[in-house]
Amino acid sequence: LTGMPVLIAATGGTARHSLVLDHALRPLFAHLKAVVVPTGVYAASEDWGAEGLDGRIERAAGELAALMRGLSATRRPAPDAFTVVPFAEQLAAVTEGSAN
């Protein structure tokens, strides 16, 4: 997830559960080195169909889209972190080095 943009969202029974976004999910994704959108969206049961939820979703989605546009403009393909060298080649390199 390193550098990957993430929008955190959840739903639950009551508004008291909304703290899970900032006290559990945001630190988890930060630990995984994701880039977390500032606005999280939590919808309790009473939020469905109520005024305001659409605006929160649009705001968070706009932040995610802006972040994605910015990353796609600057992101380059990551180099391979690992290059596999067959053991026979490694052994030959050591043998040649010791012969010189």
Walkthrough of the structure:
This protein is of the alpha/beta class and 100 residues long. The protein has helices at residues 19-31, 53-74, 87-99, and strands at 5-6, 9-12, 35-36, 41-44. It has a two-stranded parallel ribbon.
Q: What proportion of the residues form beta strands (DSSP E)?
A: 5-15%
Overall mean pLDDT stands at 85
Tally of domains: 1
N→C terminal distance: 45 Å
Order of helices and strands: EEHEEHH
CATH architecture: 3-Layer(aba) Sandwich
Overall geometry comes to: elongated
Total number of strands: 4
Query: Helix/strand-derived class?
Result: alpha/beta
CATH H-tier superfamily: Flavodoxin domain
- Biggest pleated sheet: 2 strands, parallel
Low-confidence stretches: none
The percent range for helix content is 40-55%
Biggest sheet: strands side by side, in what order?
1-3
| Rg result | 23 Å
User: So what's the CATH class?
Assistant: Alpha Beta
Helical segment count: 3
Please name the CATH topology.
Rossmann fold
What's the topology here?
Blueprint: E1 5-6, E2 9-12, H1 19-31, E3 35-36, E4 41-44, H2 53-74, H3 87-99
Parallel strand pairs: 1-3, 2-4
Fill in the keyword field for this structure:
single chain; 100 residues; alpha/beta; Rossmann fold; two-stranded parallel ribbon; two-stranded parallel sheet; 3 helices; 4 strands; 12% strand
